[in-house]
Structure formats: structure tokens, C-alpha cells
């Protein structure tokens, strides 16, 4: 069973790889590719659930997909991303929602978008045996306050992000996502923290990298500027579906080999 200790041993020796997964097939493929962490990201809101942002994503949605991912991997650490308002409104409710991901759905850890009010929750969860991944910089659940723009580009906000990462490390977080912040700030935070950092749009200094799987495989129509498509799944899927529609419409599918004839019915039909 993968543990955060395995991850700590890898950090510094080799880059950590993390990718989002929202279903069993993707999780199996990511696991077979050797991905270290399968993140059941609340980015599922935009990526697969048809929402405009991550805000409408529910605890039930993340729970159901966390279960699918956890049942489908052997080696990857499964991290459930806690959705908007599933934490922060009260410690007990936050513990209950995070606990459900580990106790009922099989996650190994949770990720919480960090702010000043998640320090205590991180401490309590860690004490209870629920590893917490922190997340600083651009935190998409704060879209109504910050938009999706890069964060930490001026000295004041850079210091705030650095301090938040430190506070969460002290509270017990086992890793910290750095999203869409300047590479020099990410390098400084990575250098200062003992726990591994995992960057997205944060340069190459972090101990690991994360991408939304739709962006990584080329399924997203308009990916963010810091993402890279390592395939063209959108093109492949589109070609396959167009071919299927054509084949049904022109009568080449199904062919004889796709069906069967029961000889026992010869007298009847
Ligand atoms: O939900 C998500 O996909 C994330 C990653 C971008 C870190 O939070």
C-alpha cells in the first residue's frame, strides 16, 4: 500500500509525478505509467462534469470518483481533493468529509486548498491519521476573489504565499501544491520547506509536477498556458466516433462477425 513516507523517500532523489484521475480506466493507465500520485481533483468540475468552475462540485461527486480511482490503482497514492465548502465552515464537518474519503472511499490522503483557516484543520486531520496535501498560490475555489490569474508576483503576496506554505508544513501537511506562481518564488519555497512541493505553472524547481489529465493527454479544447499536451486524445476520440457514426449510417457496422445466428432457431426463422 502506497504511503506518504514512500513519497518523502522519493523526494529529492527523483521528481514526483502527479496527475488527476476521475475514473477507473484513467487511474489504471496512470498507475501503469508509473505516476506516483493520482489526484481526484475537484477540477473534475470543468474537466468532466460540465460545470464552469470547481465551485459546484459536491462531496458526493468527489467521493464516488475517489472510490473508482482507489479501486483501480495498485501503486499510486490516491489523494481526494476536498471540494468548495466541504471544509472551512467548521472543524467537525471538515473532519467528517475528509474522513469519508479515507474511511469509506479508500483514499490515502486529502488535498485542501489552503488559507489561514485551514491550518487548524490540517493539524487535526494529521493527528487523526489523515495525511493532508496543502495547496497554495492560485487556488481555484477562490475564483470569485482572485480570478484564475497568476499569484505571488509582488513581494507582499509572495511573502503571504510563502508564509502559508510554512504554516501548513508546521501543521503537519505532507506535501504542498504550488499553483501558478513565479518560478523563483516556487524555487525559494521548495528550498525552504522540508516536505515535497508539487508544482503546476510554477517552474521546474518543485520536487514534483502535476497536470490535469485532460490537459496532459490532449483532451482539453483550451488548456492553460502552463500545460503541455503529450498526446492528442481529443483528435483520436473524435476520429473514432466519427468513424463509428459513418459505419452505422452506411451499413458497414455491424458486420456478420459482430452478431451470431442460433441454428436451433433454423426451423422458426
Ligand atoms: O483539482 C485539481 O486538478 C488540482 C490540481 C490542479 C492541483 O487542484
Structural account:
Strand 3, helix 5 (91-103) and strand 4 (109-113) form a beta-alpha-beta unit. This protein starts with a helix and ends in a 19-residue tail after the last helix. The chain is built from eleven helices and eight strands. Helix 5 crosses helix 6 (119-127) and helix 6 (119-127) runs parallel beside helix 8. The chain has one domain: Alpha-Beta Barrel (TIM Barrel). The protein has 269 residues and is an alpha/beta fold. The radius of gyration is 22 Å and the shape is elongated. It has helices spanning 4-10, 24-32, 44-47, 59-72, 91-103, 119-127, 143-146, 155-171, 183-192, 213-217, 233-250, and strands at residues 16-20, 37-40, 77-81, 109-113, 132-137, 175-179, 197-200, 208-211. An eight-stranded parallel beta barrel has the order 1-2-3-4-5-6-7-8, surrounded by seven helices. Residues 20, 39, 41-43, 81, 177, 179, 200, 210, 212 line the site of 3-methyl-2-oxobutanoic acid. 3-methyl-2-oxobutanoic acid binds at residues 20, 39, 41-43, 81, 177, 179, 200, 210, 212.
Short characterization:
This protein is α/β, with parallel strands linked by helices. It has eleven helices and eight strands.
Amino acid at each position: 500500500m502506497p504511503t506518504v513516507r514512500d513519497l518523502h523517500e522519493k523526494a529529492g532523489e527523483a521528481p514526483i509525478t502527479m496527475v488527476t484521475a476521475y475514473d477507473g480506466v484513467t487511474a489504471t493507465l496512470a498507475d501503469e505509467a508509473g505516476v506516483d500520485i493520482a489526484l481526484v481533483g475537484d477540477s473534475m468540475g470543468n474537466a468532466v462534469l460540465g460545470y464552469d468552475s470547481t465551485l459546484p462540485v459536491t462531496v458526493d461527486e468527489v467521493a464516488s470518483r475517489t472510490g473508482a480511482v482507489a479501486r483501480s490503482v495498485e501503486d499510486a497514492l490516491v489523494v481526494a481533493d476536498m471540494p468548495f465548502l466541504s471544509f472551512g465552515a467548521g472543524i467537525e464537518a471538515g473532519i467528517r468529509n475528509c474522513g469519508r474519503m479515507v474511511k469509506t472511499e479508500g483514499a490515502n490522503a486529502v488535498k485542501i486548498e489552503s488559507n489561514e483557516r485551514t491550518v487548524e484543520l490540517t493539524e487535526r486531520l494529521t493527528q487523526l491519521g489523515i495525511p493532508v496535501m496543502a495547496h497554495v498560490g492560485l487556488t481555484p475555489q477562490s475564483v470569485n476573489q482572485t480570478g484564475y490569474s497568476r499569484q505571488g508576483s509582488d513581494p507582499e503576496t509572495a511573502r503571504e504565499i510563502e508564509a502559508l506554505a510554512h504554516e501548513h508544513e508546521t501543521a503537519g501537511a505532507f506535501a504542498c501544491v504550488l499553483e501558478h506562481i513565479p518560478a523563483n518564488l516556487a524555487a525559494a519555497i521548495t528550498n525552504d520547506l522540508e516536505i515535497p512541493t508539487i508544482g503546476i505553472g510554477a517552474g521546474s524547481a518543485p520536487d514534483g509536477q502535476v497536470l490535469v489529465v485532460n490537459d496532459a493527454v490532449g483532451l482539453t479544447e483550451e488548456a492553460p498556458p502552463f500545460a503541455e499536451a503529450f498526446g492528442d486524445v481529443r483528435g483520436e476520440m473524435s476520429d473514432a466516433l466519427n468513424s463509428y457514426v459513418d459505419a452505422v449510417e452506411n451499413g458497414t457496422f455491424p458486420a456478420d462477425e459482430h452478431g451470431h445466428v442460433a441454428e436451433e432457431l433454423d426451423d422458426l426463422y
